Amino acid sequence: MAGSFRKTLEHPYLVTHIIYPAIMHHTSSSAVIIDLCNMSGKTKLLLVKLVHTLIWAVFVSIIAYVVWGGISGHISLYSWLAVAAVIGEGAVLLLFKGHCPLTVVARRYSASPKDNFDIFLPNWLARYNKLIFTTLFAIGLLLMIIKTI
């Protein structure tokens, strides 16, 4: 299963075109296609880094919400949905042998050995990202479970 999912991500059309919904002037919803074929590798890497950093920020916020729920005791359906989202992200990382799928895509455009070649984070944070945020998530989840018992 992991192989077929990875193959889907590596499909040339999916890698070379990103489709965004857009509202065109005096028309209904349409689609704007950004053609990545004509972009340089440097520009493609920049785009991947931007998207990767935004997704990272969302997940850090979700983990902070889990920790806050565990500390404050304000636990709701949204707290458990946040837990599910982080566990889902963990499953994706497991499918990709510990790597984010965007790292796999970014590797096509860079041979840099740095840990932050694919994301706008300091190198030390990119290196220890999984350890830091998995630990924080586990603490938050444990506190949530304790507070609900």
Indicate the percent of residues in helices.
55-70%
| Strand-pairing-aware structural class | mainly alpha
> Globular, elongated, flat, extended or rod-shaped: what is the shape?
elongated
Question: Could you give the distance between the termini?
Answer: 37 Å
Q: How many domains is the backbone divided into?
A: 1
Q: What's the total number of strands? A: 2
- What's the helix count? 6
Task: Give the gist of this structure.
With 149 residues, the protein is mainly alpha-helical. The chain has helices at 2-9, 12-16, 41-72, 77-95, 101-106, 123-148; strands at residues 17-23, 29-35.
List the helices and strands and how they pair.
Elements: H1 2-9, H2 12-16, E1 17-23, E2 29-35, H3 41-72, H4 77-95, H5 101-106, H6 123-148
Description:
This protein has helices at about 1-10, 10-15, 40-70, 75-95, 100-105, 125-149, and strands at about 15-25, 30-35. It has about 150 residues and is mainly alpha-helical. It has one domain. Strands 1-2 form a two-stranded antiparallel ribbon. Helix 3 (about 40-70) packs across helix 4. The chain is elongated. Residues about 10-30 have low confidence and may be disordered.
Main attributes of the structure:
149 residues, mainly alpha, two-stranded antiparallel sheet, 6 helices, 2 strands, 64% helix, elongated
